[in-house]
Design a protein that fits this description.
The complex is a heterodimer.
Chain A: H1 2-30, H2 37-53, H3 59-82, H4 89-109, E1 126-129, E2 132-135, H5 136-158, H6 160-170, H7 172-177, H8 182-204, H9 214-229, H10 234-254, H11 260-274, H12 286-289
Antiparallel strand pairs in A: 1-2
Helix pairs in contact in A: 1-5, 1-8, 1-9, 1-10, 2-3, 2-4, 2-8, 2-9, 3-8, 5-6, 5-8, 6-8, 9-10, 9-11, 10-11
Chain B: E1 2-11, E2 14-24, E3 29-33, H1 40-48, H2 50-61, E4 66-74, E5 77-78, H3 84-90, E6 92-95, H4 107-114, H5 120-133, H6 150-163, E7 168-172, H7 180-195, E8 199-204, E9 216-221, E10 224-230, H8 231-236, H9 238-244
Parallel strand pairs in B: 3-8, 3-9, 6-7, 7-8
Antiparallel strand pairs in B: 1-2, 1-4, 4-5, 9-10
Helix pairs in contact in B: 4-6, 5-6, 6-7
Classes of the chains: A mainly alpha, B alpha/beta.
Chain lengths: ~290, ~250
């Protein structure tokens, strides 16, 4: 039972981290709270499904293409929707929230609501780890989570573009005076955040069906772990994911599965009430931006 | 090298810079002196394109109305409406006031960011030059810039600007808040930077530390140019002495 709790708690935590990574990265690097994150996650799932079923492309190729397409959509969202209201926090939140809801509800409107919408796992089958049966796809999720964390760290610390994004997030006008363009940086971070939402979707959605409400759930989960850990903080994201991830598994196992949702919603409310900047938060608190 | 003609900058109806014309010749160190709110930072920001950037953003979001009139020619080219990046590409580099560094990055990462638009080889050359001019930075390479003293931060800030390969280096109050010893270090560095062919425009409130190395100086009050002269003329002027030399 303990091994089961530990392993599934870890997998659930990585699922949360992956779900929130794009939201956290975009906010951390450009200050844009992208409330269309859930919409992008869901859209990427349906794009991959359409590429596989309408164009007949292999699943892996479809997934890679989806990540690129979603990244481009994210960049375009910045260029078309966010750029005109950049710097007005409330307008950024309202416009991205409206867009996210529109994306999600669009798929409901066109009838993508049946149980037919699934993505194939990258690796089928399961394995026993210390007596706990776990499917390979969940191990893929853990692997993708760890790999992404390493890639993102390398990108932000050892590449010109990554250093520029970090610089822009700290002091826009000094970055501008060195020739870094703020709209380019924000567009890149939005594109990367959207692509990360797609990576999360490609890793997580094969575990079940693509359901419309996932768009809302993913946004709330992302908000929950980033608010708990502290917006802009990578360590906070990891710790927030572990806390919420294990708390959800604990609640579902010992109290009842229906209470799992309450955990992450309660986490948002409690953190904003007690420590609005989160466990590892710095200056930009969510309440300042909403 | 840089010619500014009849520059005026308004923030809404407030006049920040009032009909200023000035010229900076190749190889000079030019000083702009003035008290708080005289308009020094607005002039330098406008030269670097930051005011134009702010104006564009405010226009887009319907915020503060910023008006810029007049024109600026850099090496014969009109740069008045150019973006900051285009100006950096041409060699106009601004080192902003209050020792701006990227606090969460190491000194080395800060310096590398200075060379954002430059080639790898140019960045390496620039780093060598910066460590030569500011030897203390060599041992601080791996330290977070936010942990440095004011003087060390200023060295990093000027270092970043140097790695950006300036033809015209704009230094906005580089001595602000520094100890007299550190002020002398920065002034010495400015002279060495000029010896490497970089033209410098420096703004300051207090003229004493830098006036001896300045070729020409402009005095600004309430956004208006009130006096132009060589450093010798300025140092002999009793009004300037009392207002900007603390005597």
């Amino acid at each position: 039972m303990a091994a089961n709790f530990l392993i599934y708690g870890l997998v659930n935590s990585v699922v949360l981290m992956l779900s929130a990574l794009g939201f956290s990265l975009t906010f951390g690097l450009s200050g844009v709270a992208n409330f269309a994150h859930g919409g992008l996650y869901l859209t990427s799932g349906f794009i991959a499904w359409m590429l596989i079923h309408y164009l007949g492309l292999p699943a892996f190729v479809s997934m890679l293409l989806t990540i690129v397409i979603t990244g481009i959509i994210g960049a375009l969202i910045y260029r078309i929707i966010i750029m005109p209201v950049r710097g007005i926090a409330l307008s950024e939140v309202i416009s991205t929230m409206a867009l996210g809801v529109a994306m999600i509800e669009f798929f409901r409107y066109i009838g993508f609501v049946t149980y037919d919408f699934t993505l194939p796992p990258l690796v089928a089958g399961s394995v026993d780890i210390v007596g706990v049966s776990i499917d390979y796809q969940r191990l893929v999720i853990v692997g993708v989570g760890v790999l992404l964390a390493i890639i993102l760290w390398f990108f932000t610390h050892h590449t010109k573009a990554g250093l520029a994004l970090r610089g822009m997030s700290q002091d826009e006008y000094t970055a501008l005076s060195l020739g870094i363009e703020s709209d380019w940086a924000a567009m890149l971070s939005m594109g990367m955040g959207a692509a990360l939402a797609a990576v999360a979707a490609m890793a997580i959605l094969p575990l079940g069906i693509i359901s419309i409400n996932m768009g809302y759930d993913v946004l709330l989960l992302a908000l929950s772990v980033t608010v708990l850990g502290g917006l802009e903080s990578t360590a906070g994201l990891i710790v927030g994911s572990l806390l919420v991830g294990y708390a959800m598994v604990f609640t579902s196992t010992y109290i009842g599965p229906q209470w799992g949702t309450v955990v992450y919603l309660a986490a948002i409310v409690l953190v904003l009430a007690i420590k609005p900047s989160g466990l590892f938060g710095k200056s930009k608190e969510l309440e300042e931006r909403v | 090298m840089l010619e500014v003609n009849n520059l005026m900058v308004f923030y809404e109806n407030a006049l920040a810079v009032n009909d200023i014309s000035l010229e900076i010749k190749q190889g000079e160190i030019v000083g702009i002196f003035g008290s708080n709110s005289a308009g020094k930072t607005t002039i330098l920001n406008t030269m670097a394109g930051l005011t134009h950037h702010l104006k564009t953003r405010e226009q887009r979001r319907g915020g503060t109305r910023i008006t810029i009139t007049g024109d600026m020619l850099f090496q014969g080219e009109n740069i008045t409406t150019m973006k900051p990046r285009q100006r950096v590409e041409r060699g106009i580099i601004l080192c902003r006031e209050r020792h701006p560094v990227f606090r969460d990055n190491t000194v080395e990462e800060n310096l590398k960011l200075g060379g954002y638009l430059r080639k790898e080889r140019e960045v390496e050359e620039g780093m060598r030059f910066v460590f030569d001019i500011f030897p203390p930075l060599t041992r601080l390479k791996k330290r977070k810039a936010g942990m440095l003293s004011g003087g060390e931060k200023e060295m990093v800030a000027i270092g970043m600007a140097l790695i950006a390969k300036p033809k015209l280096l704009l230094l906005d109050e580089p001595l602000l808040g520094l100890s007299p010893h550190m002020q002398q270090e920065v002034v010495r560095a400015a002279v060495r930077i000029r010896e490497h062919g970089v033209t410098i425009l420096m703004s300051e409130q207090y003229a004493r530390p830098i006036m001896p190395v300045v070729d020409r100086a402009y005095i600004i009050e309430n956004g208006t140019l009130v006096m132009i002269g060589t450093s010798l003329e300025m140092m002999e002027n009793p009004e300037v002495k009392s207002a900007y030399f603390g005597t």
